[in-house]
Design goal:
Helix content is 33%, strand content 28%. The longest helix is centred in the N-terminal third of the chain and has 21 residues, at 99-119. It has 366 residues and is of the alpha+beta class.
Amino acid sequence: MATKKYSKIVLLTLSAALLFSACNMKKKATGISDLIYVVADSSEYYQLEPTLIQVFGKIIYTPQPENLFNLKRISVNNLEKYKDRKNILFIAPLNSGSHTSEYLNSILGEKVKKMVADSNRFVVIKPDLWAREQMVMYLFSPTIEQLKKNILSDADNLLYQFQHISDERLFNKLYYPQYEKKDIEAKLLKEYGWVIYVQPDFWLAKDAPEDNFVWLRRAPGSDMERWIFVHWIDDASPSFLDADSIAAERNRITAKFYRTSDDSSCVEIADQYLNSSEVNFEGRYAIMTQGLLRMKDKSMGGPFVNYTFYDEATKRVYMLDGSIYAPKYYKKKLIQQVDVMLHSFKTKKELSKNRIDELMDELKDE
């Protein structure tokens, strides 16, 4: 569930020997999306492991505790067997003399090492190095202690790199242009001036223009429901972007629209595990809120993710919200799916003329 941050990481060009080690026609990366293979010597890895787990093994509650990423150490001597994996992280002190350190020194080259030293960088990333949709990251510093310090100081950006490519992989898997519900997308664009990708198994559960509210829903009444809503406030001010205001507005909206069939209870934000942070949402300053929802009567619950931002062009505050009800399942991947869908949101101003014409043609064909 990546939230775009203003990364301090620099994408550097590696040595020619490394760049040309892969052919032009690369296969798609394989393996588990939330598993990072850590290339490190065993003695150095065990010193760095707690720091790496703190950053990449961050726990989210859905409400079950689930790690964002799991780590598996491999030896640089066995690298050939893992070059097609989705996530690979090399880590070593540059001056330690370990096998991994010697490998890093051999591929970085003096020019890159000087650039890193001059700019006080300690990270090199190389997407799609040996396979498509792959993230390869190199972390290095003169000493173990400096490496730990650097990792913790740039933790959010390091985590973002792996989250972002994980979201890209997932969107590519979820996006079926031949099956997307363009009729719903066209309606939203024409009537409200924005669009969001509507998967083939989602339907328009509620369209309430009087409340500036649209609810997209998947599999109602099943044991794996997914809900997305878009709510907006006209003639708004950026001052609304406050964690308490956002929580209050979300509770007001869900109290009205997320109700039991007998109207006896409604959804609200649970007290535990609630977290708000400032993020860059597709080029906009936004407040991301993550936590758990629950019915007031405690009959059900699940995770949610919410992005709220101010759009200068329309003078609107937009609230994009995705949530899951799947009591029998682990929900990390499910909440990531709705998170990825939220990131497909665009206002009319952000769409190309071809895309607008394509959607408007849907309305003509009705």
